[in-house]
Amino acid sequence: MDFVGHLTAHNIKPSLQRIKIYEYLHENRAHPTVETIYSDLVDEIPTLSKTTVYNTLKLFIDNGIASTVTIEDNEVRYDAIMDEHAHFKCDSCGNVYDIEMDISTIKFKKINSFKVETTNIYLKGKCNKCLTNKN
Amino acid sequence: MDFVGHLTAHNIKPSLQRIKIYEYLHENRAHPTVETIYSDLVDEIPTLSKTTVYNTLKLFIDNGIASTVTIEDNEVRYDAIMDEHAHFKCDSCGNVYDIEMDISTIKFKKINSFKVETTNIYLKGKCNKCLTNKN
DNA sequence: GTTCCTGCAAAAGCTTTGCAGAAGA
DNA sequence: TCTTCTGCAAAGCTTTTGCAGGAAC
Predict the structure, then answer these.
(1) Is A58 left (phi over 0), alpha (psi -120 to 50) or beta?
(2) What is the pLDDT of residues B77-88, one digit of tens each?
(3) Parallel, antiparallel, or unpaired for β A75-79 and A67-72?
(4) Which stretches in chain A have pLDDT values below 70?
């Protein structure tokens, strides 16, 4: 995938930090937090600061190439996959998985008068691996 | 509604603060934040502290009579309605509305192996009132 | 008298802001 | 040169923790 091209196509100048953070989001589908992104990338870019991670993620969100995943109260996670999909968080291992779904199939009652612009679906429970390991 | 009875039924001793906060959650369906709860109740209970609001909400959640609504990254809201329902937040006025729905109608792909325990659905857009006022 | 509850003050996190130096065009 | 980007340090918020006094039983 052409990360640099995707950044420039969204009016984001492709600095090293921005490329690496964007790459990281794509290659780490675990929906990382700022802390995770920072601590994983600081090895590769020793001068990296959290401020830059915050700045960069904000820039990505403002330009529509990333979004936040707030499946838990006390942590904000980030996602660079912009297709409509649900998120599943495992209570045991803490991993967050993408769940494919067709959001248009959801049927609401009494919502006719509201104009829905975005839909977020968050599931919690036990993932495959944890269910198997437990037994 | 018998708030005191509901608290004691869930092993929560009905102190004045707890009764008032629980009542407030039921009568204020706008899904208040800690700040809102505190500032609205401090008039009635002048000695109230935010610590107590935090303690009490945590107690309610642990005992299953309230839940958090994390429709936005930067604010945690609280809800005492424990039926399954979706939440809709209006971008314009900021109000959060309950949307009735039957969660069992949602169809996911490839989720068979996961054990889903809770489902949260958050919608954003423009509410009825704001759509009318704009025009 | 013992236990539990409340709320002040302080601490702990997380995120944002201001700004100066560095990098890039 | 001029603009933009980075990252340190400090500030700002929200939430948690420790603890002492108070209420309830």
Answers:
(1) alpha
(2) 999 988 889 999
(3) antiparallel
(4) 109-112, 134-135
Contact state of B108 with A100 under an 8 Å Cβ cutoff:
yes
Residue of chain A whose Cα is closest to the Cα of B130? A114
Which 3 state secondary structure label does DSSP give B56?
A: helix
Residues of chain B whose C-beta is under 8 A from some C-beta in A? 68, 70-73, 76, 86, 88, 90-91, 97, 99-102, 105-111, 113-128, 131
B58 touches strand D (CB under 7 A): yes
Closest-approach nucleotide to residue B49, Cα vs C1': C7
Which nucleotide is the nearest neighbour of B76, by CA and C1'? Answer: D14
Fold exhibited by the domain A85-134: Dna Ligase; domain 1 (3.30.1490)
Alpha-carbon B9 to chain mean position = 20
**β-sheet bridge partners, residue B79:** B67
| Residues from chain B contacting residue A111 (CB–CB below 8 Å) | 88, 99, 123
Q: Mutating which of A62, A74, A78, A111 best tests the B interface, going by the most B Cβ atoms within 10 A?
A: A111
Q: Which of B52, B27, B28 is nearest to B42 (CA)?
A: B52
Sign (positive or negative) of CA dihedral A103, A104, A108, A114: positive
pTM of the model: 0.91
Q: Is the CATH code 2.40.50.100 the one for domain B3-79?
A: no
Q: What is the pLDDT of residues B16-58, one digit of tens each?
A: 999 999 999 999 888 999 999 999 999 999 999 999 999 999 9
Domain ranges of chain A: 3-79, 85-134
HSE-up of residue A80 (Cα within 13 Å, Cβ side) = 23
